[in-house]
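We store amino acids, tokens; thus:
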Amino acid sequence: MDKNEIYEIFLSRIRDKDLALLSKEDMMEQLDIYLKRGLARCTAIEEVELDSSTGAFTRNLTSLEIDIISLAMVLEWIYPRVNNIQNMYSRISDKDYTVFSQAKMLDSLKTLRDETEKEFLFWHNKYQLKKFMEENNK
């Protein structure tokens, strides 16, 4: 299985003009970072390595695994955005922040982050339980 399949699912979940404006090489580099960080979150998905030279995984992934990894990538995409806006807030006054900044965007991103985190944890835990049940019913 090729990492591009996961990238397609991830990209279908987000809207990012800045990412789309990057060169193909820079975009792939950024997607690789999201993937590596996302895989680190997916502790229940075992025996999956990414061959950096071929961009292929060591085994085929299930649809559920692909979905869980893409959700983890979305989280890795959201967190820096929330942090950047929060850092901006800490540097300007409350009035300026409300008038000139992305206060509503921060609220939206936090909501998206929280909802994505819940969805990720739900599917990750469901996957873990499924694996546990399969292993104990052998």
